[in-house]
Amino acid sequence: MMPTDARIQELLHWRLRQAEAEAPLAPSAAHLLALARPWWEALPERFQALVDRLRQIQVAYAHAQADPRDFRAGHPVPALIVRAEEELESAARLLYLEVRNGRLRLRFQLDAALEPAAQALDVTFIPESPMEAPFSAHAVLSLDQEYHLEGELPEGVARRWEGWKVDQRIPYRMILRPGESVG
Fold it and tell me: Domain ranges in the chain?
């Protein structure tokens, strides 16, 4: 005997009630808002301590390079790599920088070798001017040990960054934290 449409409908309603009973509770709006906040707002004391340390990093901005044929050595940007077990001072060598239509495309290499290498980094750009807000983007490691980053810039930042070249000093520093690889 074939089940009737009413019987199938009853079975589907029963299964829906079962799934609803087994499902976890939905997160509260407050919890979702907390998850959406940038990490520096969620951990302001930790963030301030990292910014203070980052501002102390001195990077040589020499125009002469040890090997002038090394065309890949871009301008160094002070960077603080933050892992659970360590904080490592470094410089990020800019290899490519383009801002177009409010989108940043950036490639960089780290002077300090990460062992093991982080497959992805959350990059927080810290402006040298305390009047500007930080912003963040996600970078992914390539096979040639470069980090590639592409993302939207805040409107005011996009206007200031347009026209910057990879060999120019940018008034930002970076806090790098291991992130999840996307894709």
Answer: 36-178
